[in-house]
């Protein structure tokens, strides 16, 4: 039988998809398709298999990524779902990023992964795509790439790890990594104990088992209407429920594609509307999510070409926070682990709990074709005693509102972020004190425990130089340690401010993501000096340095002169010495090669999501975001 694909008298229908989609041109489309089939047949495929809709499966397995250890099993389960629904699964890799094996930081590589994801979705003949991911930066990178590529897309979360147990006490990465290491340093537990703890903190594959960035992003995926509500965000990586989510995702991708082909647009740009993102922000606040998720959400939102979506800013995150109670009792804000949240009913239970508050935009679309409201109607949830312990009822929240707050003021004209619910000394949420300034991480490490450091419990610890460009990748160094001499006096919390990030598993009165960052020669945060009075009022959402406008202008002008002298004369310059290396990154970035050069020339500021300007809807030339 003549194969119509090679019949030169018949045009190749472009809407059929499968091997026929996104044809690279080798002269003419018939020949391109002919060649494509030559090569894919090298893998043993038949014409019959190749006539099916193709569902790509992005496999992010890596020997360096325990958070994705179950990816091979998920791929198998996913394939089962795709085949049973009449599609052809095609698995392919992208880069894999784990928090501990991504020097200098995983954040530095997030945009690279998003570009890899976008371009491989676009390049290959896939009609729809499932992306397997879980570790902190993966889900953001995949959502960013998928929105830009805009083919029908469903994320498949790898799922949290199980908690471990040491002497009958549950432990889990990574809130307990910090707690236990602090106990060991303080001599409260010995070498044998810490070795036992090390064996148990990650007792199975899967993502960190607390409400850190990975879990936060998984819950956001459910809130965006992109995964199964009961298990998609919370089922453990090693559970059979997780494999069923994978099989379901496979069938759902084929269903989604057939809807798409029969006229209901099912691309991410169409499914994800303003309502979807406002729901995501509501959930972020209700779970007491990671501050990192704010950076990721802004990056995802700023990929979307619809002005209704990309007009969402940090201001919306703060406003939604004021109305949204914190309901989930998980570490680091509370006590439980992700498996507890799953056993309590997961995101389905949380969404049903929130429903009567009217905070959810129920008309938001989902991957099923139903609205969020219709999905909730068709999957009821009845609360039970245990569920209300982990998912607090609206009337008795863990924290009444504003778990995550956005502050502004002359110190951060474009905004900064604090997780008020994780503050350990609530008096610090309204506070004035003298600045104790560190120019960068090295300076901090050298002086923080100096017995002669001029610091008291009322001081405000300022760490400059860890912003997106100042310390490429914006490290999670924002949890500045309490100076040892104050720690010895029993001080457990101080107001700490930086242009960097903090691990989603950490807590304290910590202000992060100051924008513009200190390395920017125009930044007011960059000219703060020891002894300047810093004032924070979280209730009023303000953060300022009490110096006059004239003094600010004078210091910025002086700094620019020093910078000019510094770049003119190299490291030896007298004028540049006090700059402590902070400006090196800023001035040298035009000369950097490779990915580092691309990163430093194009990364935008924290309030925009630290994406590359040329990948955002704003486009090239908006890198510094001023
Ligand atoms: Fe991967 Fe924590 S290290 S989720
Ligand atoms: Mg993390």
Overview of this structure, please?
The protein has 626 residues and is an alpha/beta fold. Helices cover 37% and strands 12% of the residues. The protein has helices at 29-41, 47-50, 71-84, 106-123, 138-149, 175-185, 191-200, 213-223, 240-261, 268-271, 274-286, 292-301, 307-310, 314-323, 338-343, 346-354, 372-378, 385-390, 441-447, 484-487, 549-569, 582-588, 594-602, and strands spanning 54-59, 88-93, 128-133, 153-157, 164-166, 169-171, 404-409, 412-419, 430-438, 460-463, 495-498, 510-512, 533-537, 542-545. Strands 7-8-12-11-10-9-13-14 form an eight-stranded mixed beta sheet. A four-stranded parallel beta sheet has the order 2-1-3-4, sandwiched between helices. A hairpin with a 2-residue loop joins strand 7 and strand 8. Helix 5 packs parallel to helix 12 (292-301). The longest helix has 22 residues, at 240-261. The radius of gyration is 25 Å and the shape is globular. Mean pLDDT is 93; it is low at 570-580. The chain binds FE2/S2 (inorganic) cluster and magnesium ion (MG). FE2/S2 (inorganic) cluster is lined by residues 67, 98-99, 135-136, 173-174, 207-208, 212, 214.
What's the arrangement of secondary structure elements?
Blueprint: H1 29-41, H2 47-50, E1 54-59, H3 71-84, E2 88-93, H4 106-123, E3 128-133, H5 138-149, E4 153-157, E5 164-166, E6 169-171, H6 175-185, H7 191-200, H8 213-223, H9 240-261, H10 268-271, H11 274-286, H12 292-301, H13 307-310, H14 314-323, H15 338-343, H16 346-354, H17 372-378, H18 385-390, E7 404-409, E8 412-419, E9 430-438, H19 441-447, E10 460-463, H20 484-487, E11 495-498, E12 510-512, E13 533-537, E14 542-545, H21 549-569, H22 582-588, H23 594-602
Bound molecules: FE2/S2 (inorganic) cluster (FES) and magnesium ion.
């Amino acid at each position: 039988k003549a194969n119509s694909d090679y019949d030169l008298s018949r045009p190749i229908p472009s809407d059929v998809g499968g091997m026929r989609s996104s044809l690279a041109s080798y002269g003419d489309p018939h020949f391109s398709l002919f060649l494509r089939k030559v090569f894919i047949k090298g893998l043993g495929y038949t014409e019959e298999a190749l006539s099916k809709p193709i569902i790509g499966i992005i496999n992010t397995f890596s020997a360096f990524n325990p958070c994705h250890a179950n990816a091979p099993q998920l791929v198998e389960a996913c394939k089962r779902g795709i085949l049973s629904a009449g599609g052809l699964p095609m698995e392919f890799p992208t880069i894999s990023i784990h928090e501990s094996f991504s020097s200098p930081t995983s954040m530095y590589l997030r945009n690279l992964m998003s570009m890899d994801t976008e371009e491989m979705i676009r390049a290959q003949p896939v009609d729809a795509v499932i992306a397997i991911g879980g570790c902190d930066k993966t889900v953001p990178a995949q959502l960013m790439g998928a929105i830009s590529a805009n083919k029908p897309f469903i994320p498949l979360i790898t799922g949290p790890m199980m908690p471990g147990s040491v002497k009958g006490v549950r432990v889990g990465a990574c809130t307990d990594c910090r707690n236990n290491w602090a106990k060991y340093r303080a001599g409260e537990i010995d070498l044998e104990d810490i070795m036992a703890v090390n064996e148990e903190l990650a007792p199975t594959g899967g993502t960190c088992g607390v409400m850190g960035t990975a879990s936060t992003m998984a819950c956001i995926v459910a809130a965006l209407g992109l995964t199964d509500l009961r298990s998609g965000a919370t089922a453990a990586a090693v559970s059979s429920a997780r494999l069923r989510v994978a099989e379901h995702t496979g069938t759902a991708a084929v269903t989604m594609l057939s809807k798409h082909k029969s006229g209901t647009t099912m691309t991410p740009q169409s499914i994800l509307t303003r309502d979807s993102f406002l729901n995501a922000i509501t959930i972020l606040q209700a779970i007491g999510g990671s501050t990192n998720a704010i950076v990721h959400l802004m990056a995802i939102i700023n990929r979307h070409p619809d002005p209704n979506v990309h007009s969402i800013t940090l201001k919306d995150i703060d406003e939604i926070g004021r109305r949204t109670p914190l309901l989930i009792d998980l570490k680091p804000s509370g006590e439980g682990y992700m498996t507890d949240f799953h056993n309590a009913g997961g995101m389905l239970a949380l969404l049903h709990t929130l429903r009567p508050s009217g905070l959810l935009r129920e008309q938001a679309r989902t991957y099923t074709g139903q609205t969020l409201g219709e999905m909730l109607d068709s999957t009821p949830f009845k609360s039970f005693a245990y569920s209300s312990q982990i998912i607090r009822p609206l009337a008795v929240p863990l924290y009444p509102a504003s778990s995550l707050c956005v502050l502004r003021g002359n110190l951060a004209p474009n905004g900064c972020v604090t997780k008020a619910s994780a503050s350990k000394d609530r008096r610090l949420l309204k506070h004035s004190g003298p600045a104790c300034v560190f120019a960068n991480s090295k300076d901090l490490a050298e002086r923080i425990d100096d017995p002669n450091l001029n610091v008291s419990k009322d001081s405000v610890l300022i760490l400059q130089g860890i912003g997106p460009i100042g310390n490429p990748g914006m490290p999670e160094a924002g949890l500045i340690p309490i100076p040892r001499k104050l720690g010895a006096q029993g001080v457990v919390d101080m107001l700490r401010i930086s242009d960097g990030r903090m691990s989603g598993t950490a807590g304290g009165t910590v202000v992060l993501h100051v924008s513009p960052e200190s390395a920017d020669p125009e930044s007011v945060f960059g000219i703060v000096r020891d002894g300047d009075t810093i004032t924070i009022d979280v209730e009023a959402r303000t953060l300022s340095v009490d110096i006059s406008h004239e003094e600010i202008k004078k210091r910025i002008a002086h700094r620019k002169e020093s910078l000019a002298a510094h770049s003119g004369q190299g490291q030896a310059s007298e004028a540049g010495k006090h700059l402590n290396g902070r400006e090196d990154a800023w001035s040298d970035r035009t000369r950097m090669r490779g990915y580092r050069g691309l990163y430093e020339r194009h990364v935008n500021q924290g309030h925009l999501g630290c994406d590359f300007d040329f990948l955002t809807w704003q486009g090239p030339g908006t890198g510094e975001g001023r």
